[in-house]
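Pair request: fold both.
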Amino acid sequence: MQLLSFVIPCYHSAATLAAVTRQIRETVRADGRYQYEIILVNDNPADDTWREICRLKQEDPQIFGICMSRNFGQASALMAGYRHVHGDIVVSLDDDGQTPPAEMFRLIDAMDEDTDVVYASYPSKHHSAFRNFGSKVNDWMATWLMGKPKDLYMASYYAARRFIIDEMVKCDNPFPYVDGLAVRSTCRFKNIPIDHQDRTEGESGYTFAKLLRLWLNGFTAFSVKPLRVATVMGMVFSLVGFLFAVIVVVRKIILLDAIDAGWSSIVAIVLLLDGILMMMLGLVGEYVGRMYMTMNKSPQYVIRTTTAAAGTPETEQ
């Protein structure tokens, strides 16, 4: 009998984890074709999430809990969970119930011989307008930078073959970008429509700063296209500046036109060009800084503790 591994990054989810794990357990047992394990990764929120994970572990020995030493982000939490899976198929889903576990076999059963990863797609998403905008930016970025198929929607709810996960965890970059690792590992994807549920508790933990960090990880981890764009922009503005200088000289010498002082327009143009220049330098600095942190062996995550294999917590906090 094959084993399914469920990996759930947890952040402020003490109130929802019991329902999510119960639905997983009931759905797998009702199907009868698979065994299961559930890996809950506590990304160190300041609430009772870890205590709840320890309690759930005592109720179900198929649950394994990991507690990070601090908040490393969803991608790092997933990577920590992936390094502890034993299953033939790995299913990633959220901790808030918006990715319904009852629909898992629609993803798993769609994984035929020509498919390695099956993503859920949502005809209607129950996220805020800000979060939906962030998802669209992320989708555009994955298409442009990493060669993701344009018609593929990449969600946090997906099922992947074990060899894909094994390939993904070879990445020890301190700034992991899970979608990019999947695209780099295979070209055999599929989408299955799933109903996106309302949140039963709390609100999304994604802030603008966290979304910006996610976008930067995608921008810098898998492509040098942003640097090439910066180069092209520099060439274009240099050409425009040269042509403008030629026009000014021609008007002054040949047409004997008086050149207006135009200090306001000059200052505006200088500030614009300086802003673009600083943005390009910042982009280059981001690449260099991340290279330095990678060479300095900055950790992708640090595990503070885990639950014991026998079903009792090693430590509680």
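--- second member of the pair ---
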Amino acid sequence: MNEDSKTRYSIKHVSELTGVLGVTLRAWERRYGLLKPERNEQGHRLYTPEDVQRIRTIVAWLNQGVAISKVRPLLDAQAQPEDYSEPLPEMHDILSALDAQDEERAQRLLEQTMKAYPHQTLLDQIVTPLEFELAAMPSPQRDLAMALWRLIVIRCCAPLMRKPLPRNAPECRVLALDWQAESLAWWTALGEYLRGTRVHLMPLPQPDAETLSALCAQDRLPLYMVGHQPLREDVLVFIRQLHKGGRQVIPLGALVFWLASRTESVT
């Protein structure tokens, strides 16, 4: 008998192998009928190597921009993943709810979407294009929608980060340098937490270089700096000095472009 025919994996092991959370695997099974794991005598799910490969194929389709609701026919047809350029319908649904200031619907849709998609796929295919759409809205419509988005992101992400991690887990800091950057800061923090990193998340809107220096002097942890609004020149200089001094600094949001443009202007 082939050894693979006897191999079975727990849901925790499958999550480690594929990077797909257990809550998402269960949603794929119950809501979308994409998986049919076996059960042991205790009722625990058991996955075969074929199930693991199927999960990886599902992830490949999702990463190409296919909506989770449209994956099953493609799997049944044994089609090969290809690029779909159309935005996912979940993105438009959430955007519509935010635009209408429908708080309950927006939160419900985001919670459902977070269960249906792996974290990185969610960021690439839904969150990032959604935030671009929000930024393109006229004011004050934009400010209201972004404020609601920030609120529901915190509500949806925070409960997923409550379980304590081991004391010897790696650590990092995530700084939100303006209020518009807080949603991306939370997504970044959640991604690190799901990878087993203890995250110190802090809103630090429009800091001066002295405040930032005092915070950074506390430790040498990797530092995510998330910013969407222009920062003072002395702060940009300090961030570059941190990086040149060997500190692991990961800029995110529009901060990436401001740091790059300053480098070009200096050279």
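Observation on the second member. The mean pLDDT is 90.
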